[in-house]
Amino acid sequence: MTSRFAQWTLDAHDTRKMAAFWSAALGYEIEHDGEAPHLWPPSDAPRNSMTVWLQPTDAPKSGKNRNHPDLYVPDGGDVAAEVERLVGLGATRVDVGQRGDEGFVVLADPEGNEFCLLHRRHPQGA
């Protein structure tokens, strides 16, 4: 038996604002449980899709994240259009030292947490 990813937990200062951003970005449903919203995949998401939990914190973010989610546009969608949609939701473009020929675009959520939008998904992705 091996372990599988179940949830992405993200520390956040303003959990409601971050829930609104990530819910809109991913199409997830928000379940408010006090100050720690939980985001659930939509009914048409692949089986065993990760949930998102926004954990309240007062600690400041410092430096580049040591880990981050990689997103993709389903069904060969338009990556440039998705970048613009995410920016419209509150994301920002981020330079973490990319050369310009990577297969992804680096963005940050409204609290500065980096994430990538892949140009294409690995063919074995579930």
From TrEMBL:
Task: Identify the stretch(es) annotated as Disordered.
Answer: 37-71
What are the VOC domain coordinates in residue numbering?
Answer: 4-120
Q: Which InterPro entries match?
A: Glyas_Bleomycin-R_OHBP_Dase (IPR029068), Glyoxalase_6 (IPR041581), VOC_core (IPR037523)
What PROSITE patterns does the annotation carry? VOC (PS51819)
- Top-level lineage group: Bacteria
Q: What is this protein called?
A: VOC family protein
